[in-house]
Amino acid sequence: MDALRNILVLMEPGSETQPAFAAALALAVRFGARIELLMVDYQDLHPAYFSTPSATAQEFQDSVLSAHRQVLERLSRRAAEQGVTALGEALWGTPFHEMVLARVAATRPDLVVKHSVHHNRIERTLFTGSDWCPPCKRLEEEVFSKAEFGPEASKTFVLVKFDFPQNRELPPELVKQNEEWQAKYGVSGFPTVILVDKDQLPFGVLGFEEGGPENYLKRLEGFRQKRIRRDESFAKAAQAEGAEKAKLLDEGLAQLDEGLVRVYYESKLEEIGKLDADDALGLRTKWFAAEEAEKQKRTFIYRRPQLTNEQLRRYEAEKRPHVVRFAMPVRNYTFRDVVLDKEIPFPAEEAQEGRDAYNEKRPPDFSRFPWRP
What we know:
There is one protein chain. The protein folds into four domains: 6-114, HUPs (Rossmann fold, 3-Layer(aba) Sandwich); 122-225, Glutaredoxin; 240-296, no CATH class; 301-359, no CATH class. The chain is built from 14 helices and ten strands. It has helices spanning 19-31, 55-81, 96-107, 134-144, 150-153, 172-185, 212-238, 242-253, 258-264, 266-275, 283-300, 309-317, 322-326, 348-359, and strands spanning 6-10, 34-41, 86-92, 111-114, 122-128, 157-163, 192-196, 202-206, 333-337, 342-346. 49% of the residues lie in helices and 16% in strands. It starts with 5 loop residues before the first strand and ends in a 14-residue tail after the last helix. The protein has a four-stranded parallel beta sheet with strand order 3-2-1-4, with helices on both faces. A four-stranded mixed beta sheet has the order 6-5-7-8, with helices on both faces. Helix 7 packs antiparallel against helix 8 (242-253) and helix 8 packs antiparallel against helix 10 (266-275). The chain is an alpha/beta fold.
């Protein structure tokens, strides 16, 4: 360690803490070394999204690097307070390992320090029609292109943009990629901003909103905090059992929009349903009551409880409405008709006539039974 004179520190872009810097600073103080702070960032903004040269793309890149340089300058001042010379540089490029190897070859440090950390920045997935959609243009002009938005948002979010222009052509492979992601998330309107975690699981959806960068950053941060609370509840649920686990899963899902929950969190709902099968916690009613009511409605509204959709299509194509009566239950009972809003009896005799006519391949005789729509 006597020869330790130059330490290269690989910084983590957007991280509020920099453990590698703290470790390198301690070594530098001990051995009288100088430290070099290197922060490498890159966000994949496809060149086809922008005209060439693109002021928007370049301004975004410059704003991100400017924010990183401010961080490096602040840390360099901290090092100077402890008598350590520190120089910082922020670079834009990929792949990361090649950028680092090039730096090592150029400066030949005695030691390279990097904190092994899970990269947990969240993706901000934008679906847009950049050259024809008015709200998309406003979102770009009033929010994304503003200098005060990019650096702050990039601390916790990575922008992934899928464009659907009408006045210019994208490369075929890019069109295919965009359409696949559009189908994956069921996007039908533009602009749509979907916030997804490291597993590409959505936890928030935005469109264009008034209020500029400040409002949009607040909205993004609000969703991020909900995602944090979701993860905390799910982590606790993983260690729990029974009713307690069901409650924690419910707490996590409660942070999300119900529409997202029903589409992307089905496994969590199924788990809650099993854990609260007797509805002792009321969670089965909370998450499944509407679904079960809709099933009952579909089952009874036209009194076709024993027919599959395929059978119904075939019977309707053959213009055989008596099959509806054939499907009626054998037992006499009444139920609440959701169309007429009254109790309707189901006589077994009518059901039997429907069955007999169907089996005997003859028109049914329902003249002795009043028709009920």
